[in-house]
Amino acid sequence: MSKITKVLATGKTRTTPVDSAIYSGNPEGFLDFQLTTPGNPAGRVIDIQASQPHPLAEQLFAGAWSACYSGAVGLAAKEKKVALPEGTHVEIEVDLGQGRGEYFLQARLTVFAPGADHAAVTEVAHLADAICPYSKAVRGNIDVVLNVVTA
Questions:
Q1: Cα angle, residue 57 at apex, residues 55 and 59 outer, rounded to 5°
Q2: In order of start, what are the domains of the chain with their CATH numbers?
Q3: Which three-class secondary structure state does DSSP give residue 143?
Q4: Cα(132)–Cα(99) distance, integer angstroms
Q5: pLDDT band of 57, cuts 50, 70, 90
Q6: Sheet containing 45-49: which strands, arranged edge to edge?
Q7: Which comes out higher in pLDDT, residue 23 or 151?
């Protein structure tokens, strides 16, 4: 794996599933866009926010990955019959860094599910990681840490 010893840049995104395409956006007005999932009959959208005025490639990658992973969290929750609370969202950070004279990526995926059962959401998060095509694509290629926050 990568073994980054020096982080050069970090792209961060927060992805929130919302029930309509109307979203007020983040106060800074930087990267803020909405995506739908494949086969979605126009109801559920995924809202992605990032707080840097000029997005990094790592931020765009984190945004696309978080949209995909957020959809996988929803699928995994249905499969496991876990009701995710209002306010559930995904934050992904992708670091560009150096180690041993080479460039690498590493990532942190965090599922926030306020007030939910930690063990149940952890199971959902890991199943979502197994389902998500972006997670599959990077598996074994970059270091990824998966976190769950329910407090």
A1: 60
A2: 6-15+56-149 (3.30.300.20)
A3: strand
A4: 28
A5: confident
A6: 32-36, 45-49, 6-18, 89-99, 102-112, 143-149
A7: 151
Interval 66-81: pLDDT, tens: 888 988 998 999 999 9
Q: Are strands 89-99 and 102-112 parallel, antiparallel or unpaired?
A: antiparallel
> Per-residue pLDDT tens for 81-101?
999 998 898 889 999 999 999
Task: Look up residue 85 and give its amino acid.
Answer: P
CB of 30 closer than 8 Å to CB of 109? no
Query: Three-state DSSP class for 69?
Result: helix
pTM of the model: 0.80
